[in-house]
């Protein structure tokens, strides 16, 4: 699951507005119809006082919160927002109580009760919005937000602190409400006592329900932040297990969760560096093996580079066809590109008398030459076996398919096994066209190079017989880029002799 930071930011602002509206509804309704000690005030006057002060407080919060975001380091923003809401709503409660007492003489006990109620709401709302901003920081700033030094408040201590603070807020608020209600009842006449008992009962039920609701909201918000970390940690580790090292866990909780996230990211950094080293070593080995084959073959090094790019062009073009999109992924295409140089590695085992012969090969010599496909395939297969079970041998598997199958033909007339159609690995079908195209475009001692038009005609004639029709169609779609590769890696100097026309 991925989170939308813009949505999270809008949620924070909207949530703050909703909280302040709820304070207007809760405290406005409480004072106007539930609290028996505020009945002396006209409802409209009470709502006007509460509404005006809360609108001012919400506007002040909007400006002051921007100041907190812009002038306060991220590690202190969460605490800053918490105290901002506590002070604003606590101050709003004091102003409203003083104004009500000044206009209508609500009394000291009523002022204390209302001020305490606003202060408690400020605590619960400030905690909720601070936790929301903590999650927002995790999503926007992410990795590297905190320097984890071990000096932090642990998750367990924070949980205890929030729990104890909530219990204190609930206890103090309920204590003041219950004390004031019973003190107020003792001052009523016996005739009015029965009717006021009901008002006191609803007053206390309302306060208890409100406090329980806000407490539950804090618990859910706190749990959501923990879920964010666990979700991001799980997502990141799953991605790394799948081979994606370009992902990190957001580090925005200055506690054990931040430590876990930091060490997870350090572990991924190490794995990524090691993986890059392994990939570089693999590429070096592939190029070294290809160069070794080149020293014994009579083709130029540019042949290897050109065919490598031809295979990549064909694969990228074919990947746009729906039937191949899931197979020719970017990683699969990169694998084809890197293993293509090994297509003729088996020629290392062909005797010089045959490999370097300037003239046509005899039938017996050609049979020996054909064995280079099987020898290359077997050499790579042995390397796969040495890797052991469970190892990632995808690049060796791809190289083995290319080495063993790039002389197979679509109609089954190729070698070494006479495979046909889709029985030929896709990697080998791509290599077959790339290899033949480059042979046609290259000058040798026994022939001149074909131009692109002639090579194109020969390849189109082989559509459905020598070559996979889909691969030929991909070639036609990207033939201009083939010409560009041919020009870019053009042979320089006199090419060495080669027997490719007799080899196939």
Automatic annotation (TrEMBL):
Any one Gene Ontology BP term: signal transduction
HD-GYP domain residues: 278-491
Alphabetical keyword list: Membrane, Transmembrane, Transmembrane helix
InterPro entries, A to Z: Cyclic_di-GMP/3'3'-cGAMP_PDE (IPR052020), HAMP_dom (IPR003660), HD/PDEase_dom (IPR003607), HD_GYP_dom (IPR037522), MASE10 (IPR048440)
Identification of the protein by name: HD domain-containing protein
Domain HAMP: 234-276
One Pfam assignment: MASE10
Entries under SUPFAM superfamilies matching the protein: HAMP domain-like, HD-domain/PDEase-like
Keyword Transmembrane: yes
TM region(s), chain numbering: 20-39, 45-64, 76-98, 118-138, 159-179, 199-220
Keyword Ribonucleoprotein recorded: no
GO cellular component, one term: membrane
